[in-house]
């Protein structure tokens, strides 16, 4: 989890391949209207995110029901969003890995991207929306000030007891 440019997709991909787990790129489940809104530089509202979060939660439920482990690359910016993803899975070993970094690093990464619908101008709205996980959420927070492979290695080290 984390704001745009934090490396969610890259780190999640490395971790999923290493563990042999299924991977969902949460952005793939955004409805076309959400993608168009973001591409136009307009931030999503809670109402916009609702159906998207429900779709992500549905994928997670299918993974749990099938007895599979999976990884989701998803912003999950607010506690209420994470609560939606947690709902219905009280017995699941669900861990959020919060990737965080400075505004400058995040912006530089967004400016370097050429193949994404999320424009760099929406970074501020994401940072304003972000509610970092609280201590009771049992999340892992990792700084992104190193190469993605090192961030993924740190995530794997923290997740090993759960895998």
Layout of secondary structure:
Blueprint: H1 8-19, E1 22-25, H2 32-39, H3 46-65, E2 70-73, H4 79-86, E3 97-100, H5 103-112, H6 123-129, E4 140-143, H7 148-159
Structure write-up:
The protein is mostly helical and 163 residues long. The protein has a single domain, classed as Rossmann fold, CATH 3.40.50.300. Helices cover 47% and strands 10% of the residues. It has 7 helices and 4 strands. Strands 1-2 form a two-stranded parallel ribbon. Helix 1 packs across helix 7. The longest helix is centred in the middle third of the chain and has 20 residues. It is globular. 27% of the residues are buried.
Fill in the keyword field for this structure:
7 helices; 163 residues; 4 strands; single chain; two-stranded parallel sheet; mainly alpha; Rossmann fold
CATH topology: Rossmann fold
The largest sheet has its strands arranged as 1-2
Mean pLDDT score, rounded? 90
The counted number of beta strands is: 4
What's the number of structural domains? 1
User: Quick one: CATH superfamily?
Assistant: P-loop containing nucleotide triphosphate hydrolases
The CATH top-level class label: Alpha Beta
The radius of gyration computed from the alpha-carbon positions, rounded to a whole number of angstroms, is 15 Å
Biggest sheet, open or closed, and with what strands and sense? 2 strands, parallel
Proportion of residues in β-strands? 5-15%
Structural class: mainly alpha
Shape: globular
Helix coverage percent: 40-55%
Tally of alpha and pi helices: 7
Distance between the termini: 18 Å
What series of H and E elements makes up the topology?
A: HEHHEHEHHEH
Low-confidence parts lasting 5 or more residues at pLDDT below 50? none
């Amino acid at each position: 989890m984390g704001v745009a440019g934090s490396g969610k997709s890259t780190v999640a991909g490395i971790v999923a391949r290493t563990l042999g787990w299924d991977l969902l790129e949460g952005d793939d489940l955004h409805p076309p209207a959400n993608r168009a809104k973001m591409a136009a530089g307009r931030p999503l509202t809670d109402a916009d995110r609702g159906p998207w979060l429900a779709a992500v939660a549905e994928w997670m439920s299918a993974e749990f029901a099938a007895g599979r482990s999976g990884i989701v690359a998803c912003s999950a910016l607010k506690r209420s969003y994470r609560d939606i993803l947690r709902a219905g899975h009280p017995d699941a070993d669900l861990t959020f890995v919060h990737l965080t970094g400075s505004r400058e690093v995040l912006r530089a990464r967004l400016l370097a991207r050429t193949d994404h619908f999320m424009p760099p101008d929406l970074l501020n709205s994401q940072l304003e929306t972000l509610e970092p996980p609280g201590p009771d959420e049992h999340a892992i927070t990792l700084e992104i000030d190193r190469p993605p492979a090192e961030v993924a290695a740190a995530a794997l080290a923290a997740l090993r007891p759960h895998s």
